[in-house]
Specification:
The complex is a heterodimer of chains A (306) and B (227). Chain A is an alpha+beta fold. Chain A has eleven helices and four strands; from the N terminus they run ααβαβααβαβααααα. Chain B is of the alpha/beta class. At the A-B interface, helix 1 and helix 8 of A face helix 2 and helix 3 of B.
Chain lengths: 306, 227
């Protein structure tokens, strides 16, 4: 009972210290909030980068062109063969006549190309298959899979290689974005730790007489150190709550705008944050609390002689 | 009650703040310890509440041997000895009530008990109407009375007052001394450290005079003998 009573009093002292040193508390809180906002902006960038990569990946299709002598049955059998692989998301059959029609429509304005086509005579196009992969990494597999003795001799061309560079580049940008985010988080973590350390150091310096008085009237170690540790807890808690509120305000207009921007690709920032809000903000609170308590303990160990 | 046996204190080699001091103070005594600045009287007072420790000799307060006390025991000792300082040592961000209550809170006293004791000591020092003020809103004399009230909350058997009138004018000084005499009348041993000639002479109580770290006189109904 006495421990509970003492702990309750220490909590009250901590809250009194926060409210009675308003500006120092406010600035500390702002730094905590800034750090958490940075973490959440990096998370948002991550979601957006993933959305961008998925959006482009979904648009990436490769075409397998068959020789004109390849029968429609054989090409459709290749379609069925490819569809059986889990790595293949979709295979569309494009008949030679449709390919010719598409080509004519595409180059309708280019008289030279149209004239050349007429000179060749007939339909120079064979049937083709337009393949979408489950993941861009699967294109290599699909490219090799189609090279069976049955189909390989009748394949004129595969344009697989054209997209690899683009996808690799997108992935690289995404990875760099994540790396930059991690460096930014690391930087802010370091700055926050230094600020907490300095805040507690200043607090101990400013309150050194007060700490001495507490000891003189019989306060034990826990009564002197406890309020500082609880202040760290409250700063972490208040800043997390403030950031949850800020994120709600930011996400409300941003979410529909982002969803519209990405169109078919499902990118919902609000869903990302609120569907796992407890994990995201809980983890942020836990890490902030751990950092602030450790830094406070270190500052007390260095500067507070009790 | 209080016993110092051949106590010496050195801060630097070959220089003594206290040298071979022996004395004993009985329960209920009112003792003035006088001396010039730097004579060692404050060092002696600080030993009584374990703020300083002897380099040699023994300091015994009741059942506590200060020379051997453990760090973890000091808070408990300090809750049994009232201490009053020249600079009041009040917590600036706490009200009068909170300053006094704090000494009880750190001892784990129940809220109901705190609400009973604090008004009592506020009445003793005459500050009932100013319980919600902060220290900076009080005069020096009032701040010292808060400090005395705080020192009384544990009903200490010993009250150590280190230059309690040092920052006060004559009128407030006499008020504080009268308060200490009343506290002594209730049975509390009072150790008053001072270099105020008028106060010492008006008290007509035991006076221990210290010079250069040594006791040069100890008189039962003494006077201020230094020039």
């Amino acid at each position: 009972m006495s421990i509970l009573r003492s702990t309750w009093r220490i909590i009250i002292f901590a809250l009194q210290n926060i409210s009675r040193n308003f500006w120092l508390s406010f600035m500390t809180l702002m730094i905590f909030v800034l750090m958490l906002i940075t973490v959440n902006v990096v998370l948002m960038l991550n979601v957006l980068a993933d959305g961008a990569v998925r959006s482009i990946e979904e648009k990436v299709e490769v075409t397998i062109y068959f020789e004109a002598e390849a029968s429609e049955d054989l090409v459709k059998s290749a379609q069925g063969y490819l569809m059986a692989f889990p790595e293949v998301r979709d295979v569309r059959f494009l008949a030679a006549a449709d390919a010719l029609q598409n080509f004519k429509e595409q180059y309708a304005a280019d008289e030279v190309i149209i004239a050349s086509l007429e000179e060749v005579g007939g339909n120079p196009f064979g049937d083709s298959l337009i393949v979408s992969a489950t993941s861009p990494d699967d294109f290599d597999f699909i490219s090799e899979a189609i090279e069976t003795p049955e189909f390989a001799p009748l394949i004129r061309e595969k344009n697989f290689n054209n997209f690899e560079d683009i996808i690799d580049r997108i992935k690289l940008v995404g990875e760099r974005l994540r790396l930059f985010g991690i460096i930014l988080i690391g930087f802010f973590t370091l700055v926050t730790m230094l600020i907490i350390f300095n805040t507690i150091r200043v607090a101990i310096y400013v309150h050194r007489d007060e700490i001495g008085i507490m000891k003189l009237v019989g306060a034990n170690d826990w009564f002197v150190r406890g309020p500082f540790l609880f202040e760290a807890l409250f700063y972490s808690l208040f800043s997390t709550v403030a950031v949850v509120g800020l994120m709600a305000v930011i996400l409300r207009p941003l979410d529909p705008w982002v969803a519209r921007y990405f169109g078919d690709v499902d990118v919902h920032l609000a869903d990302f944050f609120w569907s796992q809000g407890w994990q995201i903000f809980g983890l942020e609170f836990a890490i902030l609390l751990m950092l602030s308590v450790l830094t406070t303990a270190f500052a007390m160990r260095k500067y507070l002689r009790v | 009650m209080i016993s110092l046996q051949n106590v010496s204190k050195q801060y630097v080699p070959k220089e003594y703040a206290l040298k071979g001091v022996s004395l004993s103070i009985d329960a209920g005594d009112f003792v003035s310890i006088v001396g010039q600045s730097g004579s060692g009287k404050t060092t002696l007072a600080k030993m009584l509440f374990a703020e300083e420790f002897p380099s040699k000799g023994r300091v015994v307060i009741g059942d506590w041997d200060i020379s051997k006390i453990r760090q973890s025991e000091i808070p408990t000792l300090r809750r049994q000895i009232g201490v009053v300082f020249q600079d009041f040592k009040l917590l600036p961000r706490k009200t009068v009530y909170e300053n006094i209550a704090f000494a009880l809170q750190v001892a784990g006293e129940k809220k109901s008990r705190i609400e009973e004791i604090v008004p009592q000591v506020l009445r003793i020092v005459g500050l009932v109407g100013k319980k919600d003020r902060y220290p900076y809103q009080l005069s020096g004399g009032e701040q010292q009375r808060v400090s005395i009230a705080r020192s009384l909350v544990h009903r200490p058997k010993i009250l150590v007052a280190d230059e309690p009138t040092g920052n006060l004018d004559i009128i407030h000084s006499h008020e504080i001394i009268e308060l200490l005499k009343r506290i002594n009348d209730f049975g509390t041993t009072v150790v008053l450290v001072t270099h105020d000639r008028d106060i010492v002479n008006s008290l007509k109580k035991r006076v221990i005079t210290i010079a250069e770290g040594e006791i040069i006189s100890d008189v039962k109904r003494g006077k201020y003998v230094l020039s």
